[in-house]
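note to self: dont lose this again. the chain is below, predicted strucutre after it. 256 aa total, dont forget to put it in the shared folder this time
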Amino acid sequence: MIARLTDPAAASSLFDGWNETVIWSCLQGIMGCVLADNTTRPQSAAAVLGDFAFLAGTANRALVHSALAHGEPRPLILVPRDAIWSACIESELKESVSRITRFATRKDPADLDRTRLLDLVRDVPHGIELSPIDAHLHRACAGADWSCDLVSQFPKYEDFQHLALGIVAVESGVPVAGASTYARYRDGIEIEVDTRPDRRRRGLARACAAALILAALDQGLYPSWDAHTRASLALAEQLGYRFDYAYDAYLVSSSR
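---
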């Protein structure tokens, strides 16, 4: 029987060596949760947070379905620990999933050049102001389709204020791009970046991300970047991140 662990750390050995910050958020009990096949001696576990479910241990068909059913909204990206988990996902979900490649970057603060980042912060078009996400901007981001993911993991501003950091580019009082916290773990954040479609290719997301990276470093937090696409990886590399490895994930059809 699959259950939510009251002590997420009970499954930590199954995730040993898997350097993904979403997993750390779940294991540390800060955000998300861990589902497992046994509450005291799990052999299979899923770290579930937002769009993601990371699957580790012994491949378990029931856990695949439980992970998908658990979240609200349910996870749309399944990440297998190994090829056996991949086969399990494909066997269980068939045509409702498609394999994609994501790109992890190195988690080394030495890669992030403050001078370069400050230059990127200053490189914004006339009429654009970079601003930390306050209560007003939190509501504005939550109310627009393009920007809702900037605050989606923190629906209440009080939670965002307590756990998260975020920077938006504001034009005429309205957010048009931003970089924010997708997940928080003990020693850092996972970055989410979005730009309004009609304001793309102007360096706004890059400037917001640079400002967010500096804000995180100033607080002693590591600003982790995990890229969903090669374009996201290219942006990360402009900010100083270095490619670490590519990995398989499964995108679940939203109509499933």
